[in-house]
Specification:
Blueprint lengths: L3 H8 L5 E5 L2 E4 H16 L9 E4 L4 H11 L5 E3 L6 H8 L6 E4 L4 H11 L2 E4 L17 E8 L5 E7 H14 L7 E4 L6 H13 L2 E4 L5 H10 L3 E4 L1 H9 L10 E4 L6 H10 L4 E8 L2 E7 L1 H8 L11 E2 L4 E5 L7 E6 L11 E10 L5 E6 L4 E3 L2 E3 L1 H9 L4 E11 L3 E10 L8 H9 L10 E4 L24 E2 L1
Parallel strand pairs: 3-4, 3-5, 5-6, 9-10, 11-12, 12-13, 23-24
Antiparallel strand pairs: 1-2, 7-8, 13-14, 14-15, 16-17, 17-18, 18-19, 20-21, 22-23, 24-25
């Protein structure tokens, strides 16, 4: 069975454009040769073979070369979020065995801060030379490592082996109709499954690849002018484009989304702006994706009248076995799934998703929420305990609780309930926002604040999160 490295090496053995970022364009052969140069440079850093290499890199031609070169030389990259704070990144780096932190030049200062906090050595990525080096890897070797949040908010590594990443590339590539004539462009952060995860699929298909540093209406216009054929986003981004009157895209063939359902009106307006686009909603997570898929045909059926399909996440993806563990009388239980393209599985091959759901008689999967208290805001995971710990450290806060509330655009948004240390002089929300943002990424910062006399707790003093309601009786909103 082909490895992911073998798939990429075979796909780009040509002189057609393969990577286009700004004024820079590399052919397939140039991309592979730069990847060979990246492998040669990684060999000089004294890295332990097979050990993931933490890296502060953003979507770029150099980042593609580093990932390909690392995967094919025994130095698998573990990209980290460049928008996170130095404290957040250092906490992840300290859990890794790697003693060297790779950083692109534009993140050198952030890398220096992380290195000081984590006791690691920084290696700034140089201009990569082109070398004709054959890249190869065994099927059980690591291709890359992504990180996702655990039940306590501490990010955990998800190892992506060559064999399983190759299997994922085949499944996703077929679902998204990716081939050498495709042009993939996205805006998800490189360290995210929607970033490198989707790019890895496009690389295996031999597609032309570009990327945006972040989603903007102007960035979407750039993808349109370049002639991108494939992209991915969350529904909130799509609604932003529709509101701005900028959703049209004449060359787009496939639009993949996830993180939240799309509303019927949004879907209808999308088809009006892009009549020929094929929409897919893929349900999955860093540990394994896709679990299920709402296909382009499902979306067309929804527009034709079966709008309830949009509340589902489709039916099992090709090669996926889905089950509900310990279902209650209503058929609801934790979603478990098994497939060759999942990365984090138990001894019997099952992925424990942590999502509660039910499977309808027609095979469609409906999600009912997280087994834990995780908040999913626009596709990003927010753990309440992490935010509460930061808030509790503020001198004007006696107690705090965070919960997620429904949001039409983002799926959920973050709301905080705060018990002031001095009830007569509660802290200003702007001060709490600044305090939180200095320590956590922006998507984790609450959007609304309620000042309350106390928090709902049981006899053991444990917070009863389900009793947090907005507006909270006796509370004052700020």
């Amino acid at each position: 069975m082909a490895t992911w490295t073998a798939m990429v090496s075979r796909a780009y053995d040509h002189a057609r454009p393969a990577a286009r970022f700004g004024d820079l364009t590399w052919t397939g052969r140039e991309l592979l040769d730069r990847a060979g140069g990246a492998a040669d440079w990684l060999d000089t850093l004294g890295l332990e073979p097979g050990t993931p290499v933490p890296a502060l890199v953003a979507t770029s031609a150099e980042a593609l070369a580093l990932v390909i070169g690392g995967a094919g030389s025994g130095h698998p990259l573990a990209p980290l979020g460049v928008r996170a704070t130095a404290y957040e990144i250092a906490a992840v780096v300290q859990e890794t065995r790697g003693q060297v932190l790779l950083v692109q030049p534009e993140f050198a200062e952030l890398g220096r801060q992380v290195a000081e906090l984590s006791g690691r050595r920084v290696a700034v990525v140089p201009e990569l030379r082109a070398t004709e080096r054959e890249l190869a890897a065994a099927s059980d070797e690591l291709a890359a490592v992504l990180h996702t949040s655990g039940t306590t908010g501490r990010p955990k590594p998800v190892p992506m082996t060559q064999r399983r990443l190759a299997a994922r590339a085949r499944v996703n590539g077929e679902l998204c109709a990716l081939d050498p004539d495709s042009f993939y462009g996205g805006s998800a952060p490189f360290h995210h499954i929607a970033g490198l995860g989707n790019i890895a699929v496009a690389l295996a298909a031999g597609a032309l690849i570009t990327g945006l540093p972040r989603f903007t209406v102007e960035g979407w216009a750039l993808l349109r002018s370049l002639g991108a054929t494939h992209t991915s986003m969350v529904p909130a981004m799509l609604e932003t484009l529709l509101s701005a009157g900028e959703a049209r895209h004449e060359t787009l063939r496939v639009l993949q989304y996830g993180g939240a359902p799309v509303r019927p009106g949004t879907l209808r307006r999308t088809y009006e702006a892009m009549p020929g686009v094929r929409m897919l909603n893929m349900f999955g997570q860093t540990e394994g994706s896709p679990i299920s898929v709402l296909t382009p045909e499902d979306h067309r059926e929804a527009i034709a009248g079966r709008t309830e399909l949009l509340r589902s996440v489709g039916r099992p993806a090709p090669g996926v076995e889905v089950g509900v563990a310990d279902p209650g009388p209503d058929g609801i239980g934790e979603i478990h799934a098994r497939a060759d393209h999942f990365f984090r599985i138990d001894a019997e091959g099952w992925l424990h998703s942590g999502d509660l759901g039910r499977i309808a008689d027609d095979g469609y999967l409906y999600l009912l929420g997280r087994r834990t208290d995780m908040i999913i805001r626009g596709g990003e995971n927010v753990h309440p305990l992490e935010v509460e710990t930061v808030l509790a450290a503020h001198p004007a806060v006696a107690d705090a609780a965070v919960t997620g509330v429904p949001d039409e655009r983002l799926g959920q948004t973050v709301v905080a309930f705060v018990v002031p240390a001095d009830p007569d002089a509660p802290p200003q929300p702007t001060a709490l926002r600044s305090h939180t943002r200095a320590r956590l990424s922006g998507f984790k910062v609450p959007v609304r604040w309620w000042f309350v006399d106390d928090l709902p707790r049981n006899a053991n003093g444990k917070l009863v999160r389900s009793r947090l309601r907005e507006p909270h009786e006796g509370g004052t909103r700020a």
